[in-house]
Amino acid sequence: MMKQTASQFFSAVINGILLLFCASYIFPFAWLFYTSLKSQKSFLVNMFGPPIPPTLENYQKLFSDKALIQALFNSFFNCLLSIILIVVFSFSVGYVLARYNFKGRNLLYLTFVAAMLVPVHALLVPTYVYFGTLNLLNKRFTLLLPYVTFGLPVAIYLYESYIRTIPKEIEEAARIDGASTSYVMLRVIFPICLPITGTVILLNFMGIWNEFPFALVLASHPRTRTVTVWLSTLTGLYSGSIPLRLTALLVACLPIIIVFILLRQKMIESVAAGAIKGF
After folding, report:
1. What are the backbone dihedrals phi and psi of residue 38, each rounded to the nearest 5 degrees, phi first?
2. Superfamily assignment of 61-278 in CATH?
3. Which UniProt keywords apply (predicted)?
4. For residue 218, what are the contacts with CB-CB under 8 A and spacing of at least 6?
């Protein structure tokens, strides 16, 4: 009886600690949300209290700013095109590395693995110099080249590791039916790779959306600046309204939260599939 009571007490303590950890993660986002519904006066009266009355004034002010709309468009543009290019190239290269043995294959694979160890921000100054020489600064496609280049090594490694676990008999059955290599890649292997594709999309979206140094140095013009660079200008623009600045942070975080919610299941499936096949 005493052992059962002690076990229940221990479980209650562990659950309480876990609930506190969960609350510590959830509360900042909840506070950010309901603070965005406050006016500056209401915020100064009670910083942590609920918005009484709630107002959408902060959102109206933000979305009336054309600079925010332009920054959101630039960030979505960079994320979308970069991720498409990363998925296309990394899947193709990963498939070749996983399915074909050719001279220099191991050297090529090790090169991609070694590229994962390169501190990308150490390349910021050389990239700025080269882009300035080639007149590529503050262009619509300026950030695509570094984002795709830095995203490829990890994506290739993930695709190669995942495709290697797929039985070759699936491809051989398709080839017996007359399927070409491109058909096998696009219609047979790629659908099986959807879980790892979700992981690649999620990791790169988070990285590209949150990226700041390259966006600041290579594309700081108002026409090409991203959301993260636009946020750095809020200190001067809206320094008098804390709820307005917090609303801007919430707007910048929402796309990442939405993409994570949409793709979290695919990421879990890719981890689970790798664990089962590895076992």
Report:
1. -105, 155
2. MetI-like (1.10.3720.10)
3. Cell membrane, Membrane, Transmembrane, Transmembrane helix, Transport
4. 127, 128, 131, 137, 138, 142, 143, 146
Give the range with max mean pLDDT: 12-16, 44-48, 74-78, 100-104: 74-78
Q: Which conformational region is residue 147 in: left (phi greater than 0), alpha (psi within -120 to 50 degrees), or beta?
A: alpha
Q: Which of 84, 73, 58 is nearest to 247 (CA)?
A: 58
53: cis peptide before it, omega within 30°? yes
Q: Cα–Cα distance between 109 and 257 in angstroms, integer? A: 33
228 in Cβ contact with 252 (< 8 Å):
yes
Matching residue, tokens 């790892």: 196
Q: Do 189 and 160 form a contact (C-beta atoms < 8 A)? A: no
What 8-state DSSP symbol labels residue 121?
A: G
Cα separation, 110 vs 257, in Å, equals 34
User: What is the reported pTM?
Assistant: 0.86
